[in-house]
Design a protein that fits this description.
- The structure holds two protein chains of two kinds.
- Chain A has two domains: 49-160 and 334-378, 3-Layer(aba) Sandwich (D-Maltodextrin-Binding Protein, domain 2); 163-331 and 407-444, 3-Layer(aba) Sandwich (D-Maltodextrin-Binding Protein, domain 2), CATH 3.40.190.10.
- In chain A, 46% of the residues lie in helices and 14% in strands.
- Chain A is built from 20 helices and 14 strands.
- In chain A, the strands form three sheets. In chain A, strands 7, 8, 9, 10, 11, 13 and 14 form a seven-stranded mixed beta sheet that branches. Chain A has a five-stranded mixed beta sheet with strand order 2-1-3-12-6.
- The longest helix of chain A has 21 residues, at 8-28.
- Chain A starts with 7 loop residues before the first helix and ends in a 5-residue tail after the last helix.
- Chain B is mostly helical.
- In chain B, 66% of the residues lie in helices and 1% in strands.
- Chain B has a two-stranded antiparallel ribbon with strand order 1-2.
- Classes of the chains: A alpha/beta, B mainly alpha.
- Chains A and B meet through helix 1, helix 3, helix 4, helix 12 and helix 19 of A and helix 1, helix 2 and helix 13 of B.
Chain lengths: 449, 308
């Protein structure tokens, strides 16, 4: 370029453009603009609090409804809500907490993620508050407090719904091949060739998401060796993954894969796309192990599949010779609301008032059950019979409340570091690229991390 | 960058009274330099610092010396990720270079139908990687995809669920997306070759193939180097496409360095280790870029039109 052609005017324009770009870029990184900008919660009226939660039906509307009702009742202590999509939220909330910009109320999954906040002293200890407000605590499922409790102290308010993982089956396909739902692992294995020869995939699985594969291991471990097997891992016992029950469970999972138990191409199907559910309700797969949160979508997207009574559901069957109690289940024992320790005392008071008066209020409870979910409040079973989904809801209520042990999903219970290692090895195990023994060796290395 | 500070043409220009034109031009690089320092160098130094710490992204940053580096270097996953990165780089270069070179030469012609085809060929360039990846993922789905929909058994493969097929799909999609871009570069370069060279060759009785190998290809030497540098360095940081298509799977079959970095940093909360991988990525990219310049032979500003 000839220097003569680059006039001063051009240069100034260029410089101004650059400055504008820089200004824009810095805007982009300053987070949610108006709604959540009072990050620490101390800007507007005293007592104003911020609250970040997840988008997606039906939860988003119900969460917003509780906030609106609270704001109406408390005009002086408003809660401002900001919503995020699931995967974006997981990264966003971590970054915000790390930068000291957390909202007053932090929506979360409890367990290992909550532990990492606690270790960084970022969330309030609510133990004494729950002791003073026993009524708030006593109306919730006791099992929901496990994932909120870190080293004996409660750091989160259990909320929303309980979501056990259940075995779904397509009744039409079972009728077609003349099969009965499996009562044991051996039954399940003998169903595999039956469905395969009928041209139907025995089991649907969204394997790319990895935690979907994990659900099979969670139940196999429990049914073979009881909840103690994973508890030992959680407690950081040395070589806990080498437990014979653990090796047996991993081996059985690989046997099922080798027998073509899962749908062809399962390792490239994601659960986020709901393609695994579509396989079940379009009649391409006969069974699916999944959380109860999938019911709503299958009902909505599956045409008359659910309303026509074609969806069967049951708790995971027994493994012959196993020790686990058949009532045991795994899944999400609840969702968890924490209070940021960086918030102002007034904002913290607002959050606590929100927990006590608005979270799982009678109106919210009704909204959850209307949407086919079981809130973690005791005694809702009497209201369920009026619902259109009464059978399913009663089944979920009984499974959740009748479980001798309701274990939290492994990847939520463990620290994020150990969970990532676990999911990585599970993907390899289901790819048959490592043996059960190698899996145990790899995982033993990160025990206690 | 080099255009901002052109070499002073010997003799022909008179120096102005403002005292040295090159001086006044040099400070014009300042805005770009400031932006580069603020958004390139400073974060890089931050990453270098973080690689000597242990940080979960939430708590306090603990300086731990070489702990993160040791963990990364002792992990067989790093070698695997390097290998995957290298395979993607090599294969995508091998597919893209001949294809885009030939297409570029073809599209350099001014015939009407070629201009029309050029517009069609450049369409993939307009699409975002994420959109392309989502589309291919849907098309290749063994149960609901193209093959199942059209009942073509050959297309019903576990495209993204088998290690080799998944790698092949990634190379294909990457090439599909980027060949138009490199074609554009070659098209421009071919059009700059002086017509007189071909006329002279024709007078000497050279055929089309001979002219391609004796004139076009040597004249495109620096374009090939530029395009290869873009391909090679670009393939080091492929992330969005692979993340959406396979998330590094099946298992870890397509997990390259960039994905490994993301997974360690944002999924496993190991910012120290992720930073160490980022530093390795920067070093590898720098080394490759320098190597390619060396292969180019001296400075790329040497004239190719000597004697024309």
């Amino acid at each position: 370029m000839d220097p003569k052609t680059l006039s001063r005017r051009n240069f100034l324009g260029l410089a101004a453009g650059t400055a504008a770009t820089v200004a824009l870029a810095s805007c982009g990184s300053s987070g949610p603009s108006d709604k959540g900008s009072s990050g620490g919660g101390g800007s507007a009226a005293a007592g104003a609090a911020t609250y970040w939660f997840l988008t997606g039906a039906p939860g988003e509307k119900i969460r917003q409804g509780s906030v609106d009702r609270f704001n109406q009742a408390n005009p002086n202590a408003k809660i401002t809500a900001t919503t995020f999509a699931n995967d974006a939220y997981k990264t966003k909330i971590k970054t915000a907490i790390g930068a000291g910009q957390a909202p007053t109320i932090i929506w979360g999954w409890g367990g290992g993620g909550l532990r990492s906040y606690v270790q960084a002293s970022q969330v309030e200890d609510l133990t004494s508050w729950f002791a003073e407000n026993a009524a708030v605590k006593d109306r919730l499922f006791p099992s929901s407090f496990g994932a909120a409790t870190i080293d004996g102290k409660i750091y989160a308010m259990p909320a929303e719904t309980v979501q056990p993982i259940v075995l779904y089956w397509n009744k039409k396909l079972f009728d077609k091949v003349g099969a009965e739902p499996p009562q044991s692992w051996d039954d399940l294995m003998s169903l595999v060739p039956k469905f395969n020869s009928a041209g139907v995939a025995p089991i649907s699985l969204g394997g790319q998401s990895r935690w979907t594969n994990m659900m099979w291991l969670e139940f196999l471990f429990d049914r073979i060796g009881g909840p103690e097997v994973f508890q030992a891992v959680f407690d950081g016992e040395k070589d806990a993954w080498s437990n014979p029950a653990s090796i047996q469970g991993l081996t059985k999972a690989q046997e099922l894969i080798k027998a073509n138990g899962f749908v062809k191409g399962f390792s490239s199907i994601t659960a986020d796309s709901n393609a695994d559910q579509a396989l079940l309700y379009t009649g391409k797969a006969a069974m699916m192990l999944h959380g109860t949160w999938t019911y709503g979508n299958m009902k909505e997207a599956g045409g008359d599949f659910v309303s026509g009574g074609n969806l069967g559901y049951m708790n995971f069957p027994a493994v012959d010779g196993g020790k686990g109690d058949l009532s045991n289940t795994v899944g999400n024992p609840g969702q968890y609301y924490s209070i940021s320790s960086k918030a102002t005392p007034e904002a913290k008071e607002t959050a606590k008032k929100f927990f006590a008066t608005a979270v799982l209020s009678d109106a919210e409870v009704k909204e959850w059950t209307d949407n086919g979910a079981i809130p973690i409040v005791k005694g809702t079973n009497s209201q369920l019979s009026a619902s259109k989904d009464a059978d399913f809801l009663t089944f979920v209520y009984d499974t959740a409340s009748g479980a001798k042990v309701f274990a939290q999903s492994w990847d939520q219970a463990l620290s994020p570091t150990a969970a990532e290692k676990l999911l990585d090895n599970i993907a390899k195990l289901f790819q048959l690229s490592i043996t059960p023994q190698q899996f145990a060796d790899n995982m033993n290395q990160v025990i206690g991390q | 960058m080099t255009t901002l500070a052109p070499p002073a043409a010997p003799g022909t220009r008179r120096t102005t009274s403002t005292g040295g034109r090159s001086g006044s031009v040099a400070w014009m690089a300042l805005p770009a330099l400031l932006v580069f320092i603020a958004f390139g160098v400073v974060p890089l130094l931050g990453v270098l610092f973080l690689s000597f710490t242990s940080w979960d992204g939430i708590g306090v940053i603990k300086p731990t010396g070489l702990v993160s580096w040791r963990a990364v270097l002792a992990d067989p996953g790093l070698l695997h990720a390097l290998w995957v990165t290298f395979v993607i780089m090599a294969l995508s270069w091998l597919v893209q270079t001949p294809a885009s070179l030939l297409l570029g030469v073809f599209l350099a012609g001014h015939q009407r139908y070629r201009e029309f085809l050029a517009v069609l060929f450049f369409i993939p360039l307009l699409l975002s990687s994420a959109a392309i990846a989502i589309t291919y993922k849907a098309l290749l789905d063994p149960n609901f995809g193209l093959g199942a929909g059209l009942h073509i058994p050959l297309l019903v493969q576990d495209w993204l669920g088998e290690a080799r097929l998944a790698m092949g799909v990634i190379i294909f999609v990457v090439s599909w997306q980027f060949i138009p871009f490199h074609t554009l570069i070659y098209q421009g370069a071919v059009r700059q070759i002086p017509r007189s060279m071909y006329e002279a060759a024709q007078l000497d009785g050279a055929g089309r193939v001979r002219m391609f190998f004796r004139i076009t290809l040597p004249q495109l030497k620096y374009t090939i180097i530029t395009s290869s540098t873009l391909m090679v360095v670009g393939s080091l940081v492929f992330f969005d496409l692979i993340f959406v298509l396979t998330e590094g799977g099946p298992g870890d079959a397509t997990r390259n360095l960039a994905l490994d970095m993301y997974k360690r940093g944002f999924q496993a909360n190991l910012m120290g280790q992720a930073s160490a991988i980022a530093v390795i990525l920067v070093l590898v990219a720098l080394a490759l870029a320098l190597l390619l310049r060396r292969i180019g032979g001296g400075s790329s500003s040497t004239s190719q039109l000597e004697g024309v």
